[in-house]
Design goal:
530 residues, mainly beta, Neuraminidase, Immunoglobulin-like, 3 domains, 4-stranded antiparallel beta sheet, 0% helix
Length: 530
């Protein structure tokens, strides 16, 4: 059986949660859910972090990755930001949302905008579908409301969502709180043009499900048809796995069923130990409470397998995929929103043996400076032979950079400089530890992003929808910035530090944006206005 112990350690207003797990032989090599030991400041209000029926995704901003938690029951909730650029992670609070929105599935659009819609406002069980789509900009810690963009006849809550380019897709949901009104609707909304389209219905209605994507297919996993006043909240569970193709807009159903029917679950798709894409599901509600168990469906072999259980029962949150084999869950309720998930997010690295290892990874970081990256790590080690720093190439191959002998048993610190990198872009690293019997294990992956001299965000910019402010990222040593049309005529813009304000109206198209630096040639980037 999978066992664990919790060791809470308090220091002032910060908490550390350590989980100790023992894997059965059938799950060896799959890894385990474990607390990251992530601290956060409780001096404000722990309620700001703890929540359920919320959304979460990973944003890429300012050369780093940030896990973002938005929405949830209980009125306007602040964004919660999780620094994913080093290990252990660290939590801090962002700004408050302008409106309440819960029962959502968030998506990430154009790297740093976390978008959600088709959610509820109000309390159980008579929640009201919201007419709004909200977007949180992790780069500027700001919110936008796309007001009344959902047609009144298609509004519902607890819908599943995915994004494909600029199209935001919604699947199924509830029109009448938790009482009735489950629907099989499929819709999509274009985030640039504001176009709304209704598409063919799903094979069956459901709510509290999760949509996951592999290739050009969307898989609806779990859910129920909520009817608190008509048969019971969990009386109509949905175990079919329906499939929507993003190209043909057609539906099909997999020839299998979810072994453990559940609603409000956590789900994703990752490659398994065989290298096959696998639908993975954890947690979720049922008539007897809330699960912690996990199970996965191999889309190649068409087989189900058990997965390591969560450290605690959970529902109403969203998994964040932080690399090809690692997940984070930040919140979620044990039962009915009254008992909360542990104060530290859970982190998992699947299919990497991490029990009884000769090394404990205390921290791993990648820090960028110019065109170089310093990879540093701290470990508690016993009879380790060597460490090898590896960098992932653009085609997914891990390339060894250097091999370092160890300093001996105990707590040790190491660092390696990856100098003179060839070009701007995203760089991903890991450390391979080898012990004296030839066995090796891998650290958590870390990544950083090297930009060119300048970039602006957002680019493209939806000026037609009233978005006028740009943020300059990168080298801020420029003396002036000029905007031109394609005829070479200068267009007046306002500048305040890193912020640029565009005119209220400009024709759609490409515009040269020129940065002037003292003693150097100007740098020009192309700004696209939609």
């Amino acid at each position: 059986m999978l066992g664990f112990c919790t060791l809470p350690i308090s220091q002032g207003t910060r908490f550390l949660l350590i989980l100790c797990l023992t894997l059965p032989a059938s799950l060896a090599g799959q890894g385990a859910w474990m607390a990251t030991g992530t601290p956060y400041d409780l001096s404000t209000n722990p309620y700001e972090y703890r929540r359920h029926e919320c959304g979460a995704e990973v944003a890429h901003t300012h050369n780093k990755r940030t896990g973002v938690l938005i929405g949830g029951r209980g009125g306007s909730r602040p964004a919660i930001l999780l620094d994913l650029n080093s290990y252990p992670f660290y939590l801090h609070r962002g700004s408050y949302a302008p409106v309440e929105l819960h029962h959502i599935e968030a998506v990430v659009w154009r790297d740093s905008l976390i978008v959600a819609g088709m959610g509820f406002t109000g309390g159980y069980p008579s929640e009201t579908p919201s007419p709004n789509i909200i977007a949180y900009d992790a780069a500027s810690d700001s919110w936008q409301i796309l007001e009344n963009n959902i047609p009144s006849a298609r509004r519902r809550g607890s819908a599943s969502a995915v994004i494909d380019g600029d199209w935001l897709y919604f699947f199924c949901g509830l029109t009448n709180g938790h009482q009735s009104g489950w629907v099989p609707w499929t819709d999509r909304y274009h985030l640039v043009t504001g176009t709304w389209q209704s598409l063919p219905d799903a094979p069956r209605a459901r709510d509290h499900s999760v949509a996951v994507v592999e290739g050009r297919n969307v898989y609806l996993v779990g859910g129920r048809r909520s009817a608190v006043n008509n048969g019971g909240l969990h009386s109509f569970m949905v175990d079919s796995l329906d499939v929507f193709n993003l190209d043909s807009h057609s539906w099909s159903t997999l020839p299998t069923r979810l072994p453990t029917p559940r609603a409000g679950l956590l789900a994703t798709i990752l490659d398994n130990a065989a290298g096959h894409p696998e639908i993975m599901a954890w947690g979720g509600e049922y008539s007897g409470g809330v699960y912690n168990i996990g199970e996965g469906y191999d889309l190649i072999s068409n087989n189900w397998e058990p997965l390591p259980s969560l450290a605690g029962n959970a529902h109403g949150d969203q998994l964040m995929k932080i690399n090809h084999d690692s997940l984070v869950v930040m919140s979620g309720a044990y039962l009915g929103g009254n008992e909360w998930f542990p104060t530290s997010p859970e982190y998992v690295q699947l299919y990497a043996a991490n029990a009884n290892l000769p090394v404990e990874w205390l921290s791993v970081e990648a820090r960028q400076s110019g065109m170089s990256v310093t990879i540093s790590w701290e470990v508690e080690e016993t009879f380790v032979l060597s460490y090898q720093v590896e960098r992932r190439s653009q085609d997914g191959i891990w390339e060894p950079l250097t091999e370092m002998r160890t300093n001996g048993n105990g707590r040790q610190q190491y660092a390696y400089l990856d100098a003179n990198l060839p070009a701007p872009g995203r760089y991903i690293y890991r450390i391979r530890q080898t012990d004296f019997d030839g066995q090796s294990t891998l650290s958590p992956q870390v990544e950083t992003y090297i930009q060119g001299p300048f970039s602006v965000y957002p680019n493209p910019v939806a000026l037609s929808r009233g978005l006028r402010q740009l943020t300059v990222q990168g080298d801020l040593s420029f003396q002036a910035v000029h905007l031109y049309d394609l005829q070479g005529r200068q267009i007046p813009i306002e500048q305040s530090g890193q912020q640029l304000i565009l005119p209220a109206s400009l024709p759609a198209g490409l515009y040269p944006l020129q940065f002037v630096r003292s003693g150097q040639r100007p740098v020009t980037i192309k700004l696209r206005i939609d």
